Amino acid sequence: MLSRVVLLGAALFTFAACDENSANAGTGIYDKASGSIKASVNGTTVNATKNVHGILTGNDAANSAVRRLLIQAENSDGTVIYLHVESAFGPGTYPLGGSPATPSYGAVSQGGTTHLWISNALGGTGSVTIDEISDSHAKGSFTFVAVPQPGSPVTGSMTVTSGTFDISPN
Question: What is the domain count for the chain?
Answer without folding.
Answer: 1
